[in-house]
UniProtKB/TrEMBL annotation:
This is UTP--glucose-1-phosphate uridylyltransferase. It is an enzyme of class 2 (transferase). Its EC number is 2.7.7.9. It comes from Aestuariirhabdus litorea. Pfam families: NTP_transferase.
Length: 275
């Protein structure tokens, strides 16, 4: 059973400066809901109700968001505006939230290792909240949790990307073992198109087995001088098995301005006005 979902949320979000100078990127709203709230909803839908967040300096708004705001709630009690808090109140009631701080931003692998203290020795999911995923049926994490029950190994979500965009992603090479499921035999972090082993790019949804922590501990800084999760996953794939899953649904790269605008337009039409 997977119960925990880790949100690495300590990055600086430099692509959104100056907005992210004092506000966490994960609190940027898509219409009227912050990115991280969409991610926690997806986790809860998949049955993961223990939410672990890796934060950093200037990220206190994240913890405040998943807490009661007595003054505000008292102020709007009994008014029509109260209903606007229904979704977040439901999450706060249904989930537990714990936090730890990454002191130095040494990369995604390092952020996940920082979360070990919250996860312990059990399989867990990872959500990068700036990748917003939507699907009319099961959410992407739900799809992956089902797969984990069957295969019991680490799983990364992938999507096909245009060849000239591989430099933005970890890119996999693998053999197809079932429709939409690949066994990984190579992975490269942010390759130039000519070095990319395929056009199948890893996006911000993972299920990891806890042996990943020891592997990250032994992973040297890679691309950009950061401790890369991709490097640790490649080691895990070589030692055992890591699967890549071509998920059903749409994914918006809300860490980039273009993806953020696209997600905003999509959610305004399909989620906000559809509510
Ligand atoms: P990104 O590569 O998107 O970096 O990190 P970033 O700092 O958030 O954004 P830019 O590129 O400067 O605009 C991917 C995910 O990993 C987390 C980020 O918070 C984001 O969710 N992360 C990254 C950490 O938690 N710690 C790190 O040291 C690096």
């Amino acid at each position: 059973m997977i119960r925990k979902c880790l949100f690495p949320a300590a990055g600086y979000g430099t692509r959104f400066l100056p907005a992210t100078k004092s506000m966490p990127k994960e609190m940027m709203p898509i219409v009227n809901k912050p990115l991280i709230e969409y991610g926690v909803e997806e986790a809860l839908e998949a049955g993961l109700d223990q939410i672990s967040i890796v934060t950093g300096r200037g990220k206190r708004a994240l913890a405040d968001h998943f807490d009661t705001n007595y003054e505000l709630e008292h102020q709007i009690a009994g008014s029509s505006k109260e209903a606007m808090l229904n979704d977040i109140r439901h999450l706060i009631d249904a989930c537990t939230f714990s936090y730890t701080r990454q002191r130095e931003m040494k990369g995604l692998g390092h952020a996940i290792l920082t979360g070990e203290t919250l996860i312990g020795d059990e399989p867990f999911a990872v959500v990068l909240a700036d990748d917003l995923c939507v699907n009319p049926g099961d959410g992407v994490l739900s799809q992956m949790v089902k797969l984990f029950r069957q295969f019991r190994c680490s799983i990364v979500a992938i999507q096909e990307v245009p060849a000239d965009e591989t430099y933005k992603y970890g890119v996999i090479d693998g053999e197809m073992i079932k429709e939409d499921i690949f066994r990984i035999n190579n992975m490269v972090e942010k390759p130039a198109p000519e070095d990319a082993p395929s056009n199948m790019a890893i996006i911000g949804r993972y299920i990891l087995t806890p042996d990943i922590f020891d592997i990250i501990r032994n992973t040297k800084p890679g691309k950009g001088g950061e401790i890369q999760l991709t490097d640790a996953l490649l080691q895990q794939a070589k030692d055992g098995c890591v699967l890549a899953y071509k998920f059903k649904g749409k994914r918006f790269d809300c860490g980039s301005v273009d993806g953020y605008i696209e997600a905003t337009n999509y959610c305004y039409e399909n989620v906000y006005r559809g509510d």
